[in-house]
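Continuing the batch. This is chain 6 of the set; chains 1 through 5 are on the previous pages. Same settings as before, nothing changed between runs. Recording input and output for traceability.
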Amino acid sequence: MRMSAILTTLVGLAVAGGSAYLARDYVERSKASASVSEEAELVSVLVARSDIALGQAIEAHLLETIAWPRDSVPGGVYTDRGELLAPQGQHPRRAKRAISQGELIMKSKVSEYGEKVTIGQTLGPNLRAMAIKVSAETAVGGFVTPGDSVDVVLTQGNREELRAVTILQNIRVIGVDQDADEHADTPEVARTVTVAVTPEQSQRLALAQRAGTLSLTLRNFEAAETQQLDLIKLSDILIDAPLEDKVSRTVLVRRGNTTEIQELR
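Output for chain 6:
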């Protein structure tokens, strides 16, 4: 009886030990399988390690590799440094537009090897670059920088005939003087501001520059909508009546030995 109990106990221990071993082996294999599955669902992509300015050469120290979900990788993104960086002795690729830190390096934002990069490559389809003469007073005190959006206001006339009208709205600034870097955040007093406009808008802008003074108003990035604005005249904002209407007209009236002044109405 005792021998039977001992054998039963030994068999139970062996079964328990085997079950524990099989369970541990299953868990370890499941973890390994999950790890392989997760790795298979990710792909390495290239991003900017720091800000890259328009026209700047693409070099190795400006890049870093991160893991990206394979199913959500956008088309045209660089995944291989060898494809992006120039071979020995060849001119490098350059940024065709400003690339922010952490941004994916897209083929549409990078030139061919040795290709010249100009501000025209930052323009969208059917857009033109056009410069506007400005000063500190007409360019928001120098706070307009590349990448901002502005409205353009025309002021013309003299004295009582002075009038103003907004001729263009939500226009993108692509350059300030010779600076086209959209990462620039230091205000500077510029002499010219270059904007991206359609051919029709460029004609209106050319005429307006000859007709009077152009001023820029800086827009909020979220203020994308435009609205119809009417021309406004100086007389529309003057609340008081003209001075000549305020001058009283009087006449001296004599009645016998008395005199009095009466105002003409």
